[in-house]
Amino acid sequence: MSQVSLQNITKQFKSVTALSDVTFDIHDGEFFVLLGPTGAGKTTTLRIIAGLTKQEEGSVTFDGEAIDLLPPADRDVAFVFQQYSLYPTMTVYDNLAFPLRSPMRKVPEPEIKTRVTDIAAVLRITHLLDRKTAKLSGGEMQRVSIGRAIVRSPRMYLMDEPLSNLDAKLRESLRVELAHLQKTQRSTTLFVTHDQIEALTMADRIGVLDRGKLIQVGTPEDIYDRPATVFVAQLVGSPKINLLRVSCAGEELSLDDSAYRVPMEGVCAATEAGADGLPPAFILGVRPEDVQLSAGGTFIGTIVLVEPLGVETLLHIRLDGQVVICTVPGIAKARLGDVVHFDVNKDRLHLFHPVTGARLNA
Amino acid sequence: MATIELKQVAKMFGTTYAVKPMDLTIQDGEFVVLLGPSGCGKTTTLRMISGLEAVTEGNVYLDGEDVTWRPASARDVAFVFQFFALYPRMTVYQNIAFPLESTHESKEVIDRRVNEVVDMLRIRPLLKLKPGALSGGDKQRVALARSLVRRPACFLMDEPLGALDAEFREAMRAEIKRLHNEQHATTVYVTHDQIEAMAMGDRIVVMSNAVVQQIGTPAEVYYDPQNLFVANFIGSPGMQLMEGDYSAGNAHMPGGNVYKVPQAWRAALDREIGQGKVVIGFRPEAAEISADGPFTGMVFGIDLHGAYVVLHVKLVSDQIVQVRAPRDHTYGLDASACFDLNHDMVRFFNPTTQQAIFPEASA
């Protein structure tokens, strides 16, 4: 497997900039997830690495060697698409063996047999080997597609939302299997998704893309615990992070439309110095699990909505002019109109610039 | 405001049942969700309530009155569809006012009522725009406003959030429920999304294969599913289900683990199962990682879910179950892990009948 590096990649489609100066590395054996909404440039990045799309500027290297001039067939990458592209008249066995039988590789049949049966066992499709692929379910077809990509050992895998056509329960079980497979084989993988749960649960590292720009690269914990912008903060986590309007008042943040204050040392003092011309108003991000009900809590609000999801209940609490969502375990017996006291975890607050959205606190 | 009652209502297409005979009573002001996978009969049920589909058997009552053979237009219900059917050439205001204009309300009445719903749904800035200029979420708000403005006795909603992006869906879900809390209009809401059903429903009607599987509050269907279908369908993930051999108070699991069944359940299991196969069900949050737990396996995957992690534990039987753990857990991939089950949250099922076993049955 290879170490892959993208340097200053820029791609224009007519007047639209699909990718703007994108730079990141994928370590040898790493599971790297590109996360972003539709149109962020995820698939374009994948296609540039595969050689299916040509960038205007920048360079892609495999193990330090530029591959920009190599045609797709010579780049030795394996692709898994959202749509399974299998040969319907061939058996599962023949579909899996196909990449190995390519005239470029000429793997001997006994070795093909060993590799196909090994892969089939890993993906739990041994019992399907003699079936035609047209007769398989969606989950089975996607297993075969993944099998066909990993049956040979390319320099890296490129996966373009391979789970998004499956129903929720199937998606989850295949996600866990795929992650386990990658972690035991340590294959260099670039996985593209718009699903934050897939990104948080599978990735060694995540790159967040927004409208062609790479906003943040980090481990799932980095991205979740220290989002670089308000966009990233909203992209990961379900239920979504609470965003509250606040302004500076000495060493404290004062909640807009409210008498409440939250201590926030350092940031306010720095901004009041006015060095970088920041406005006095900010966005305060608080994850729902960091809002904790407690009888002696500083904040007092009224429950305006209760959403019992099962494993947890979302309480929407009106705090003067704003609404804060709080998660409590299990199905809570809270009722509309109940007055509740709560605190926020002061070590896990996120302060963002109201215009640029950039993170302001450490 | 209205009550809705279905008595032995059924629908056949040709010789197959789309909905097998079902009873359902919906109280005035209640929010009831019809939930199930596609093809389970939930939309057909909604359409029979609305009058868009004729029943094959049974009767439909609105406010105690038999409306079985009354046409949809005479039933005083408002339908909200997945696809917002707005008039593209009219402004948002005209779209919302349309149902009132067609019943020849005065201009003052129309203006007052449009203004009311516009504030409720926070779409005042959109009034002069045409639907083409709106986002999916805003279109669905306008569609809702147009149904609200009529002040119908009840709302029938068919996957109204189904066409929206995930990010809008969470917000719209809360908005529809908040609207309901203010208006208290009787609402029947169809979805295949169990999270939506749990979050919104006062009660949930779980359907599968044309049959009502369970009718209950979110807490009832989550904690006490009537059968294996409901156990698996509700929750993300569904209830974790492990099969073992029961005899004399113990469940013998494949690979040699023995689970001592909590005292409260023994009489029921002795009676219902005696000696034989039993399915043990638990939610991921009901499992507790502990060194001397009766279930053992290998950590197959570790998922960060933001506030907590989920360990995927592969049992000796090759089955993978999910166990919730705090973020500061110390397990690595392929490490061995033992867990126990919270006695109050473990459930049992008869694999032959697929039905839940309840301790009350033995009392």
What this model shows, in words?
By secondary structure, chain A is of the alpha+beta class. Chain A has 9 helices and 20 strands. A 6-stranded mixed sheet of chain A has the order 6-7-8-3-9-10, with helices on both faces. In chain A, α2 runs parallel beside α4 (138-150). The longest helix of chain A has 18 residues, at 168-185. The model of chain A has no long low-confidence stretch (mean pLDDT 89). In chain B, β9 (203-208) and β10 form a beta hairpin. In chain B, α2 (92-101) packs across α3 (107-120) and α2 (92-101) packs parallel to α4 (136-148). The radius of gyration of chain B is 25 Å and the shape is elongated. Chain B is 26% helix and 33% strand. The longest helix of chain B has 18 residues, at 166-183. In chain B, strands 6-7-8-3-9-10 form a 6-stranded mixed sheet, with helices on both faces. Chain B has 9 helices and 21 strands. Chain B has helices spanning 42-50, 92-101, 107-120, 136-148, 166-183, 194-200, 218-223, 228-233, 263-272, and strands at residues 4-13, 16-26, 31-35, 57-62, 65-66, 77-80, 154-158, 186-191, 203-208, 211-216, 240-247, 250-252, 258-260, 276-282, 287-289, 295-304, 309-315, 320-325, 336-341, 347-349, 356-357. Chain B is of the alpha+beta class and 363 residues long. At the A-B interface, α5, α6, α7 and β16 of A face α5, α6, α7 and β16 of B.
Give a topology summary.
The complex is a heterodimer of chains A (362) and B (363).
Chain A (H helix, E strand, L loop, with lengths): L3 E10 L2 E11 L4 E5 L6 H9 L6 E6 L2 E2 L10 E4 L11 H10 L7 H14 L15 H13 L5 E5 L7 H18 L3 E5 L2 H7 L2 E6 L2 E6 L1 H6 L4 H6 L6 E8 L2 E4 L5 E3 L3 H6 L8 E6 L4 E3 L5 E10 L3 E8 L2 E8 L9 E6 L4 E4 L10
Parallel strand pairs in A: 3-8, 3-9, 6-7, 7-8
Antiparallel strand pairs in A: 1-2, 1-4, 4-5, 9-10, 11-12, 11-14, 12-13, 14-20, 15-19, 16-17, 16-19, 17-18
Helix pairs in contact in A: 2-3, 2-4
Chain B lengths: L3 E10 L2 E11 L4 E5 L6 H9 L6 E6 L2 E2 L10 E4 L11 H10 L5 H14 L15 H13 L5 E5 L7 H18 L2 E6 L2 H7 L2 E6 L2 E6 L1 H6 L4 H6 L6 E8 L2 E3 L5 E3 L2 H10 L3 E7 L4 E3 L5 E10 L4 E7 L4 E6 L10 E6 L5 E3 L6 E2 L6
Parallel strand pairs in B: 3-8, 3-9, 6-7, 7-8
Antiparallel strand pairs in B: 1-2, 1-4, 4-5, 9-10, 11-12, 11-14, 12-13, 14-20, 15-19, 16-17, 16-19, 17-18, 20-21
Helix pairs in contact in B: 2-3, 2-4
